[in-house]
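Input set for joint prediction.
Command: fold jointly, output tokens.
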Amino acid sequence: MIGLYVPGDSFLHRAPAGVKLLVLAAGLAAFGLLRGLGAVVVAAAVEVGLALAAGLGPRTVLAHLRPLRWILIVIGSLQAWLSGWQPAVVVCGSIVVAVLGASLVTLTTRTEDLLTALERGLGPARHLGVRPDRVALVLALVVRAVPVLSRIAGEVHQARAARGAQRSMRAFAVPFVIRSVRYADRLGEALAARGVDD
Amino acid sequence: MRGALSARDLALVAVFAALIVVLGEAGTLYPFGAVVPITAQTLGVMLAGSVLGARRGLLAVGAFEVLVAAGLPLLAGGRGGLGVFTGPTAGFLLGWLPGVVVVGLIARWALRAAGTRGLIPRLLVAHTVGGVAVVYALGVPMLAVQTQVSISRALAISAVYLPGDAVKVVLASVVTAAVVRGYPRVLAQDR
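tokens >
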């Protein structure tokens, strides 16, 4: 499965995932406390600088902001109408800054590295009965199961079309879920045979 | 603690997380022909709760969200990464976690209390409360905070998704009832 990571060799790429996560959290917390036009301008400038330093093109970065376009239009015009243009700029700017900062971490950090950082963070949860090795196993199984379920969905679609029930969502969802559960049963037996229950 | 999860539990958790992914793929589910594509991922969350129960359902949704946060584009429309957790709609995504627990708890009660009769109305309650009300209870205030509007305005903005949610509530209930009837083994070993 292809992640959103963009390969590179900048200092941002080389920085440890855990450090990037902590800096992001601290940065967004500070930004939330300051909140204002000045904070937006400074934070946006820092983020654009980091994106340039990481060698990320405007297209790559804007692709991450694209899903925000409708909410920005709605909120921007609502705020401009209710409270004036400056609050509108601050609110929309704050949303962009928060999403862009997080996207910089996503774009410069491998999925495996983020998961490893998470596993390390889960360490203390061991005392609560969380087993990091099992967490890693389940996540790997999800990635493995997606193409299998995609194929099942395709087959169920064809079967539904053959029965002339294209419009019935039920005629898709019921067999899709039952076949998925059957697949899970086989997968569970295979795991048990490999000693996962021990 | 109620004991470790069996291998079958782990498999069901992983497969339902994958089911949420696949329900977000384009073209999986078109309620009104191909005119209005709705993202069916909330349907997957509801089903994880009612079919797997609160505990395994929570783990399935959690696994899905961890992979999204780690940078896999698994949300509908190929979205993913940490940005979706810092954006204005993050509350809806986080609301799936308590949401699936509530769906699971009410659905378990529904399955125990009801025979075949009266099962679907109870499941409708489970999916409405857990899959919609709880999700909105987190999503709307977080949207209001990030966009600096009142709760009622944030609710009005979110209301465009309510018709789609209603469709998913009905579908999830009908599907759960059919799955329980057609494949009762899924509920065995349930905790």
